Amino acid sequence: MPFRRFVETGRVAVVSDGPHKGKLVSIVDVIDQTRVLVDGPETKVPRSQLRLNQLHLTKLRIKFPFSASTRVVRKAWKEGQVQEKWEKSVWAQKVAAKQKRAQLTDFDRFKLRRARSRRNKIRTASFLALRKASSRNGFLYGKSKMAKGGDKPKPAKKAEKKPAAKKAEKK
Amino acid sequence: MLVLRCSLARTSWCFVSFRHKHSSRWPRQKVKSPLRAKRFSRTKMFHKKAIYNFVGKKVAATKKPVKPRVVEKQIGGDKNGGKRYVLVQKRPAVYPTQDRIRKRPAKQVFKSHVRSLRPSITPGTVLILLAGAHKGKRVVFLKQLDSGLLLVTGPFGINACPLRRISQRYVIGTQTKIDVSGVKLPETLNDKYFKRQKQKRAKKEEGDIFQNKKEEYKVSEQRKADQKAVDKQVLESIRKHPDRKVLLAYLSAMFGLRSSQFPHRLQF
């Protein structure tokens, strides 16, 4: 599979190290094989050179000429809706979830654990019910393994609704 | 370059000398060696020092009161002459023949130590115990005793941790707090109350020393009553918490670290 993300002018990247760790920047120019000039006008990253191993390339790209001024970069950034697109990405959501998880207090962790175990119990129960039903009516292991007398396929109970509570926030 | 610097210097001279014509801040000529030329002529210095202000004026010399150099001191004893003159300012070579009597610092005893409490721990904080028979339990902090130890309770009915003292070193303070402002603790709950009872040694005459069985610890009725009284109030205040049901389960559950959990990275 060919590469999809290149080190190129306009490529949006996440800073992975240094004082601006975790912020979004855009590559403005390529200095050499290992370094690029970046700028993050909307994320408060001043224009500076960064080593490429301090960057994680994203799939986003905006269009502006190389070595463009911050003003131009900002304009392209806004027009490209980088922030909105980034927040929608799975990557950003994972980062947010990770941050959220790190901020949980002891009591929050307890609540989360409790909710998860409750959800899992419900899920397991409904799975077992489904399996039982489908093995009895020969759907799962074939007609030969069917229970004697052959239960009529019971309409599988609908899985109970998961405790929609907070724990949708992550699992 | 040299010329330039000189001219610069000169201009600056002029400039400043105009502004501070008689200012005393302006450097006087400092000529230490007679071989060097003076920077300013006598006439110039006359103006610079503003001597013209003082020419022909007579200023009365101020007389400082002469401080006495010696002090007369009375000396006891018959053959000591009765008095001595002692220099007010001792000569530099003088040194004391006796050590000065120094004030001793006040004795530092445990009683007088300053007690401090971590800011994360306030009355009503849920603590995680890290040491002792109840380690791993989550308990409610009630107050700090005079010895600096923390008074905690399970409550006993929830996680079997009784009213107990523990050092704040062996405790993690969580952010979960219960409003215990309404809880009234019995006055008797102090350090003495929790002190270990010393067993009296059996007298030698009484039976065999090896046969003597140690008395097992028994919870006194007083303690049971106090426990009940305190826990009742604490439970009541737990019930006022918005998450009361989960909180009860939380207090009864033990604390533990899961995989890839590190206490220094966790929020409590």
From TrEMBL, chain A:
Large ribosomal subunit protein eL14 domain ranges (all copies): 46-120
Keyword Ribonucleoprotein: yes
Keywords: Ribonucleoprotein, Ribosomal protein
One Gene Ontology cellular component annotation held by this UniProt entry: cytosolic large ribosomal subunit
Superkingdom of source: Eukaryota
Family (UniProt): Belongs to the eukaryotic ribosomal protein eL14 family.
Pfam families: KOW (PF00467), Ribosomal_L14e (PF01929)
Organism phylogeny: Eukaryota, Metazoa, Ecdysozoa, Arthropoda, Hexapoda
Protein name, as recorded: Large ribosomal subunit protein eL14
TrEMBL record, chain B:
A Pfam family hit: Ribosomal_L6e
Top-level taxon of origin: Eukaryota
InterPro entries: 60S_ribosomal_eL6, Rib_uL2_dom2, Ribosomal_eL6_KOW, Translation_prot_SH3-like_sf
Keywords carried by this UniProt record: Ribonucleoprotein, Ribosomal protein
Molecular function in Gene Ontology: RNA binding; structural constituent of ribosome
GO biological process, one term: cytoplasmic translation
Cellular compartments per GO CC: cytosolic large ribosomal subunit
Assembly mode: Component of the large ribosomal subunit. May bind IPO9 with low affinity.
Family as reported in the entry's similarity comment: Belongs to the eukaryotic ribosomal protein eL6 family.
Protein name listed in UniProt: Large ribosomal subunit protein eL6
Species this chain originates from: Rhynchophorus ferrugineus
